[in-house]
Design a protein that fits this description.
Blueprint lengths: L2 H115 L1
């Protein structure tokens, strides 16, 4: 064998080795890709489930918050109405108390006049 044919044979062997290594690398990449997909699929399902749960709970909190805000506004309105009624009743009580004092005074004057007449 000549030196050129030995060199050509060696280069052919190197080329075949490189092709084999290249094919091994492709196979390895495909295997890793498959493994990665298999490994991440449960995590992606879990993330999706958590997102759905968060969305549901967020909707529930929004509904609850709206209901509580509505109840708070109604309670404030009732408080204002109650305070208004209380002020009106206190004014009426004051007026009636004054009238009672006036009537008692008049009654006492009439009693005194009646006693003086007798």
């Amino acid at each position: 064998m000549t030196e050129a044919s030995i060199r050509e044979e060696r280069l052919r062997d190197e080329l075949n080795e490189m092709r084999r290594r290249w094919q091994d690398a492709i196979t390895s990449r495909e295997n890793l890709s498959t493994e990665l997909s298999n490994a991440t699929a449960p995590l992606l399902r879990q993330i999706s489930t958590l997102q759905d749960s968060l969305r549901f709970k967020s909707d529930q909190w929004s509904t609850l918050e709206a209901n509580l805000n509505e109840r708070a506004i109604k309670a404030e309105n009732l408080l204002h109405q109650s305070e208004k009624i209380k002020l009106e009743l206190e004014f009426k009580l004051s007026t009636i108390s004054q009238q009672l004092q006036t009537l008692k005074k008049q009654n006492q004057e009439l009693i005194d006049q009646s006693n003086q007449s007798n």
